[in-house]
Amino acid sequence: MADVTITPRANGPLMVQGDFKIVDAQGNEYSVSGDVVTLCRCGESSEKPFCDGSHRPAGFEASSEAR
Ligand code: FES
Fold it and tell me: 44 in ligand 1 pocket by Cβ < 6 Å?
């Protein structure tokens, strides 16, 4: 059983749930509270790598269904 679940939200971010840590390119850990975060996949967030809701006014569209 996986410890982490990553769910692409319809027309939105990647929702990460579980026991995880997020690090930058140098391996420094981001401070994250709780066991759920949303990661930007539209490229518009000013809080990258986290989603700040900018995908909505940007009109980001992406499928969220597994193929
Ligand atoms: S997915 Fe939400 S700001 Fe990019």
Answer: yes
